[in-house]
Amino acid sequence: MKKLAMLFTGLIMVSVLTGCASNYVMTTKSGDVIVSQGKPELDEDTGMMSYTDKAGDRRQINKDDIKEMIAE
């Protein structure tokens, strides 16, 4: 019974971590497609979206340049 409970707990933890690590696809008004690792963060003061690209580099884009953003 303990093994079953541990397995169930492990599966829940993996599911939660997988949900947090989803990629986002942003389409810009100019037609470019940007894939980010994790959810981009908006800086309300500057209006810039910060995200991590496929290579692991931290980048920023103006939120007004983003046409659409969806979770992958």
TrEMBL record:
List the InterPro entries: LSM_dom_sf, YgdI/YgdR-like, YgdI/YgdR-like_SH3-like
Q: Does the keyword Ion transport apply?
A: no
Q: Which residues form the signal peptide?
A: 1-21
* Keyword line: Cell membrane, Lipoprotein, Membrane, Palmitate, Signal
Q: Domain Lipoprotein YgdI/YgdR-like SH3-like, which positions?
A: 23-70
Question: Which positions are tagged coiled coil?
Answer: none
Q: Where are the transmembrane segments?
A: none
Which Gene3D superfamilies does the annotation name? 2.30.30.100
Question: What is the official name of this protein in its record?
Answer: YgdI/YgdR family lipoprotein
Biological classification of the source: Bacteria, Pseudomonadati, Pseudomonadota, Gammaproteobacteria, Enterobacterales
